[in-house]
Amino acid sequence: MTVVSRILSASSKILLLPSRSIATTSVSYIQPSALVQVAQTTSRLRNVTMLTERKPFSSDFFFRQLFDEKSWTYSYLLGDINSKEAVLIDPVLEQAKRDAKLVQELGFNLTYALNTHMHADHITGTGYLKQLLPGTISVISEASGAKADKYLRDNEVVKFGRFELKAMSTPGHTNGCMTYVVEEQGVAFTGDTLLIRGCGRTDFQEGDSRTLYKSVHERIFTLPENFRLFPAHDYKGNMETSVAEEKQYNPRLTKDIDGFVEIMANLNLPYPKMIDKAVPANRECGLYDIPKEE
């Protein structure tokens, strides 16, 4: 029996004791504050358990989180340390040289450059990376409407070395949004579908609040609660979250579907600054005013 279970069991017994039994104990009564302390301790232990049960990465799995300060975008380099095959999720055009240099320094072969969806806030680096690292294959969902070397459908798998990354369709922010899951490592890359304590907009580019809500609740929130979640953006300095955290603390997605739709309809967000440039470029795999390498 775990520590949490023992405390819960003990607190249940205390609460079920009749008043006559309590009166005959050496303590004439139990202070209400004692029960509050038990409940608070139990809650804290539950939180500790939630955090410590997360899977550690296997010794042959490489993970690196990268950041673009202009668009607040996270990119993710994943690799098989033994085979040296790697993938890069959601690269940014302005950071393509940085990313290519890192791949080369670490001795990886970048097999795939993937986008979680057709971005509206930055130009993807996939096209430039194909130029910088010949042999790189660009990847995006078939439903995205963007060009790529390889298109993915729901539950299709991309392999790099011995690892598998499963593409899970999670539309709502855009029709082509996908969450990429590496089940063995207990991680998922949610793009803009699910952010840390938030979610992607649904007021442009095929956005639909009800679809997004269902994508999160039926696909992402049904992953194991200890899975670590990595979004495409964060605007407050957070770097990761988990299924358990978002199910408990996400201020939008803990509401019922009608409440969520109402919240999303009243965000009153400004028109995206980069959308008129980013979407046409990303439709062409990011091949838009990129320099030609000598």
Can you describe what's shown?
Helix content is 32%, strand content 22%. It is of the alpha/beta class. It has a single domain (61-284), classed as Metallo-beta-lactamase, Chain A (4-Layer Sandwich). It has a six-stranded mixed sheet with strand order 1-2-3-4-5-6. Strand 3, helix 4 and strand 4 form a beta-alpha-beta unit. It starts with a helix and ends in an 11-residue tail after the last helix. This is Persulfide dioxygenase ETHE1, mitochondrial. Keywords: Acetylation, Dioxygenase, Iron, Metal-binding, Mitochondrion, Oxidoreductase, Transit peptide. Belongs to the metallo-beta-lactamase superfamily. Glyoxalase II family. It catalyses: S-sulfanylglutathione + O2 + H2O = sulfite + glutathione + 2 H(+).
